[in-house]
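User: Here's a chain of 264 residues. Predict its fold as tokens.
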Amino acid sequence: MKKHLTISIIKGFPESSRSGFTLLELLITASCVILLMIPTIQIFQTSSRGSLSGMLTIKTTLEARRILKRVHLDLKSISKPISVSQNIECEIGSFLSETSFSGNMEYKFHIFPFSYELNQVIPTSVENSAPRYLNRIIYKLLPNSTNPAFPLKKLIREEIPHPALGSQTKTTVLSERVHFFQIKPLEIHSSQGHNQQYFYITLQLVDSIDKSTLENLSGFTALSRPPGIIIADYTDLVYPEFWCEWFNRSGPNFNWHSYLEGPP
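Assistant: Prediction complete.
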């Protein structure tokens, strides 16, 4: 009886039920999850960089448009001081002064300041004369870093008003990521023998998603640029409307009440 009871107890002992995972199973499961997550993370990173690159391109485009619009308006109203006894030179290259020093550039010219009231720039209370007052514009391309090898420069615009206008010099930083900027006189010859004079503007901006790449940037070209660098080229053609309309009007009479006067 005791033997039978013992056998019954042994046979009736329940088998162990598995309520967890072994270490090997956990490792296999974790490896599978990681293998599935790697391409997901890569796709997310690629899409994120593509999105950031697109947003940066839009930002660069808007900045370039703002700069070109400012330069376009200045060159459109370009002029130069002319006295009564001065011989008038209408070559468009004589309106623009270009200076290069130590790799930096300066473009200087005069404009008719449309931002002022008309009775300010064309005074009527001046005795014996009634000049048109001009402002002087200077575009400066200066170093943007203490590192001489850093290729990006700062584009600055200065507007020096005529002393009679009584305002201060306005200085504006247009951009700090300019790789190339140029204003060039251009003359186009037509088959009818009429020549048109223009100004041709070239602007190149550079930026990067990775700021460390931009800070450590050195000399490069469009064909050999570091990864992640965005190069954006922009151009514009400007017809100097104010000067051409003023000079080409019928019967120009440069006398005491029509000469142009500006700051040096």
